[in-house]
Specification:
The protein is of the alpha/beta class. The protein is 39% helix and 15% strand. It has one domain.
Length: 259
């Protein structure tokens, strides 16, 4: 993963993918949106002036979407997602594979940067991250690439945002992998990161990149290193203190409540 980030060019290398549609999709229970989360959602309204269609899914509408466009196997996998964050993870892969567009977490607040450079083609854009094991903290990716020698750090990609045209092979691979993992996992498994989250997407990306390299193909994805200019995950939000926060749920600090 570190090599993929290092090799990032910042420019699209593939021009033949389906165009990224002007669709902004997000996920939360529309009947119970906290005021602070609603403020984050509302911050994206200005994209409508740029021709974006904004759509918000919840558990019910997401299940209907999967039922309409995917197999019974996918429906069963979605039903095995034990936390709202897992369902959001799984649904975003389904939606992005079928429709494409821009998926952003509901607690991200738009900061006003232009998103046009990210939707000019159907290329997949992914945000690289780096976790430092010794300090148990996230570190700046650019700095980590320079001074990571001899340190225990995990390079990976976030599954927020997801930006791509429909039918991107990395998304297809990630959906298939998540489906297989969910259907095989014990229902008590709370390893959200590996089952449906960034760990699943990272493994799928690395596998895809290795296959591309073996086949002599140009990469059809790029690293998004400037997402903080577009949006930021807002802290604090009230829901982060209870079981609706997947981090608390994974630790067993609370049960899921809401989406």
């Amino acid at each position: 993963m570190r090599q993929l980030i290092t090799a990032s060019s910042g420019e699209s290398q593939v021009a033949s993918r389906p165009t990224t549609p002007r669709v902004l999709v997000q996920f939360w229970d529309a009947s119970a949106i906290p005021d602070d989360v609603q403020e984050c959602l509302d911050s994206w309204a200005q994209l409508e002036a740029a021709g974006f269609e904004r759509t918000l899914f919840d558990d019910t509408s997401a299940r209907h979407f999967i039922e309409d466009h995917f197999s019974e196997r996918n429906v069963r996998a979605f039903a095995r997602c034990s936390h709202p964050a897992m369902r959001a993870d799984y649904f975003r892969l389904c939606f992005m594979l079928r429709v494409g567009g821009l998926y952003v977490d509901a607690d991200d607040e738009y900061r006003g940067a232009d998103v046009e450079p990210l939707i000019g083609s159907g290329q997949l854009w992914l945000q690289p991250l780096c976790y430092d094991i010794a300090s148990d903290s996230m570190v700046d990716v650019a700095r980590a690439l320079v001074d990571s020698a001899g340190t225990a750090r995990i390079f990976y990609v976030n599954n927020n945002p997801l930006i791509a045209g429909p039918a991107h092979p990395v998304i297809a691979r990630a959906l298939e992998r998540a489906t297989a993992l969910l259907l095989a996992a014990n229902r008590a498994n709370r390893d959200l990161q590996s089952l449906t989250g960034p760990g699943n997407l990272t493994a799928s990306l690395v596998s895809h990149a290795a296959q591309q390299h073996a086949d002599g193909k140009a990469r059809d994805f790029e690293m998004l290193t400037s997402w903080d200019a577009v949006a930021v995950s807002k802290w604090p939000l009230a829901y982060r203190a209870d079981g609706r926060n997947w981090r608390n749920w994974v630790r067993g600090d609370g049960e899921a409540d809401g989406s």
